[in-house]
Specification:
Bound molecules: nicotinamide-adenine-dinucleotide
Number of helices: 18
Strand order of the largest sheet: 3-2-1-4-5-6
Largest sheet: 6 strands, parallel
Helix content: 40-55%
Number of strands: 14
Distance between the termini: 57 Å
Length: 443
Amino acid sequence: MKVTIFGTGYVGLVTGACLSEVGHDVTCVDVDEDKIAGLNEGVAPIYEPGLEQLIVGNHASGRLQFTTDPTAAIERAEVIFIAVGTPPDENGSADLQYVLEVARTVAAEMTGYKLICTKSTVPVGTSEKVAEAITATLAGRDVPFEVASNPEFLKEGAAVADFMRPDRIIVGSEKPAVQETMRELYAPFTVNHDRIVFMDIRSAELTKYAANAMLATKISFINEIANLAERLGADIENVRQGIGSDSRIGYSFIYPGCGYGGSCFPKDIKALIKTAEECFYDATLLRSVDDVNDRQKSRLFEKLNDHFKGALDGLTIAVWGLSFKPETDDMREAASLRLLEQLFDAGANVQAYDPQAMEEAQRRLGHRGELTLVGTKETALRGAAALVICTEWRSFRSPDFDLIKQELTEPVIFDGRNLYEPSRMKRRGFAYYGIGRGIGTNG
Ligand code: NAD
């Protein structure tokens, strides 16, 4: 099928690469000229395992095109996806300006029937706004179209794998012809069993927010229990295993840490709270999930500040991990950003390392005297007063502890992801602070 995708970010690019990989004829459109120029040279603008190979292979075969010119891309498309950003606006709602701009662009150019699917995460009722924007732009021109919702559930860091083997594909449309088109489009991804769930548009839009809200709730829940465990002298890792073994609860998404980040959970929870406000519902639970997470992002700094008795001024701190989670270079809303900001405010210097996010860190944080971005995790330790771990990259799981001890001026580790065992760290001679791991030096 001929598919056009607006937006070559995490979602649009992965969608384009994967749809072309299974044989569809895909054109990706973006307003960012540098990004499109890079993609035409085979350079992926983001780090995502397996993505660049798919881009290069399918671009070479002609099945995946990149352009900044929407006209021909709209003309040839049977299905058009809107996969542009929906960042929070100043009051926390999802900003729909990019989504509606694409709707108007499509309407201005289309001359025959089009199916327009929203893949961006958008508040309930947005598809109706997209249809209205199209109708208004058509200004009486008689061109038929359908609008559907097809929210995306891929995880950064495993986006290609998730797209290729989705748990489910949600399609919001009750029109048989639209359902048939979407079935055909996604047939290669549903070979061994049907994974497409059809529903009305509004339910599809809400399903995406509900999924993210559920996952964020699990994280804030375990972080709340972790904070209690610290005060009660209990170990959250024992508690986690104790509850995860209950099949009604399960082990996934109950890892304590220094707060969730990324491009989705923080903004989507805030947008859902805003949606609730707009329909006069007080979303008490969602507000708490957001508040708990906000507080959790300061836990590492609080632990450092307590350990050094408020005397962080002039100290150098080593930070391992800057991306919001492993296997991505995305730093949007990363816990590391809050920590760095608090350390700088306290007068500390930072030596930081991340396996993938160094360029992104440089772009975001610029050149500043108090921050040194270094090329290896070992260099980050040199002469630092403490090591802080913000992201659970695999390469941090089993480091050379003797070297860490040798390089730090004091053997102290603040572990925002509970990578190590407190008793073992104590035997190795470290002061070790995890999240939710009892009281005292092991707390
Ligand atoms: P992104 O910010 O990485 O990319 C958005 C892209 O859209 C940019 O390249 C931008 O230049 C482009 N764009 C903006 N206006 C445009 C226009 N008029 N025409 C063409 N291109 C335009 O965003 P993302 O992370 O891919 O997220 C896109 C949407 O998908 C958001 O609503 C997000 O919430 C949702 N989503 C994201 C993820 C994720 O893991 N990142 C997962 C599921 C859903």
